[in-house]
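Known limitations

Files may contain more than one protein. Parsers should not assume a single record per file. Below, a two-record file is shown to illustrate correct handling: read the sequence, read the token line, then continue until end of file.
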Amino acid sequence: MIRFLTNILTSIYNIFANMLRKLISSPRNRHSDPLSSTSLDLAYLTPNLIVMSTPASTFPKNLWRNPTEDVRRFLNANHGDEWKIWSLRGEANDYLDRDLHDRGSYPPSHIPLLSILSCLRLLSVVEHFGWPDHHPPPFEYIQPLLTSIHNHLLSSDQATAILHCKGTPSPSTHKPNS
């Protein structure tokens, strides 16, 4: 009986959260992805460059922002383990970097060296180049940011760069042809 009630409440929560996300991101279209069963506020600028609104891990912000679990599921399904996120947000993020950590396969944490390697991989999932909202980036940020993105995209033909700030991406949410 408790499991039945939990399933009903979870379904109601998901319906409400999806409706709220659609209202907040309108009139833009959300990017619906059948491969990962997600609907996110993001836009493909090129097949390997994505912009999105900031993800969130906790209630209530994950009601209207991209939930980190959906972002992670979308990126893993569509871009394997060759994606990396750049946070351009100057304020504190609404997620911890580790919330996006489940990328690809990881070694068992009970083996010390492999655990250290896993942590190093975690450090490379999100890079922070934040500046205050509604302001241009400081000049000293531009070259390191573009170099970091450029180096990642050169690392593999499948490498994908994802940029997010506090706001929302452009109204074009189609995925360009490869």
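...continuing to the second record:
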Amino acid sequence: MVQITISTGEANHFLLCTPFEQKVRPRNPVDAQFSIPWGVATAIAKKKVTMEHFTEEAINSHDILHLTGRIRVEPDLSLNMSPNQQIEPARVKVEMRDGRVYTETVEDPTGCPKRPMSFTNIVEKFKDFVSLSPKNYRMTTFKGLLTSSQIWRR
């Protein structure tokens, strides 16, 4: 992989891609949580993104930092949010050493109203959050909550 270019609308560029140095080399977990470059590099390096990738230890991860060093970000006015959208689209372009180029544009990310998460995905995400809680919660504490999709229908 030679370079990764992330294009976003102006709002996401301002909020989640600047200041650039803090977004590619987060000073703390909160910097990483509000960084599109960190999230993209993590997804490529780890094949998934979970809460464990936003810890003090994770922000020093060499495999992720290696990829953030190959990232470029750019605002693209064509990706600004239109009146019928609830979140700005984004585009990722990956250029390989052999000349191949992969580009993916996401108009509606998973979890937005047009592409809601399944109940199973919500439970898995919840378990991921709880696993890093400063309190030592046992999942049995939440057993009723996690087995009843009725709460999501209200």
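Parsers that stop after the first record will miss the second one. For reference, the second record is described as follows. Residues 3-106 form a domain with the 60s Ribosomal Protein L30; Chain: A; fold (CATH 3.30.1330.120).
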